[in-house]
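Lab notes, practical 5.
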Amino acid sequence: MIFGLSSSSSSSAANGNGQVNPKPDRMTLLIWGVASMAALVMVTVGLVKASIPPLPPMIRQVSMDFTVVDVTDDDRIGAKWDVFLRLPPEFDFYVRCTDGEVQASILYRNLTIATSSPQRYVLVAGRERGLAEVVRVSVAAAEQEGGVGKSIMDDIKERGEVRFQTRLLLTDCREDKTGRIRYLCDEAAVVPSPDAPQTLTTLPQDRPQCRDSS
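Output from the prediction step:
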């Protein structure tokens, strides 16, 4: 009947060819909305990640040797430190240079007591074979003031160890940087070496981490 045809035509829409196109239901619209939102979130996250520079790779201090060269009557000491650093392969790709300079400062109880001259290094293994590179930097100090020297010697006598911290400056070859990247290493304890009475060294398991402090 005419009433039935009228009711059927009200629930659908006809295209230009006279065919009937069903209207999208709520579930379809909901799926489209969720998919669009997810795509927008993914694009936004990708743009944010692209704008955040990667973190500098962590450096490991493999060992530290501390040698007392001289002790005066007024408790002044002359000393030197040999610090061995393990630079991971990704350090080469991060700073964009395979050879540069490293400068180390020795801290004792948060006080800088010695700073090395800049010393050159070449990252051969890290670049060609994908291996970590061990770099040595030596720090020498003339006779320290009596208070610092006495405190260091007291630590050795009373505690059987003395704790130092290392601050590093390494060459950074990236164009948009200042040319130096700063690292601060965790504190390390050196203990007397049985083979060399004047030398203290870190234990094999004590390998402080050095993190970017720029």
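Observations recorded by the TA: Residues 2-51 form one domain. The chain has a mean pLDDT of 79.
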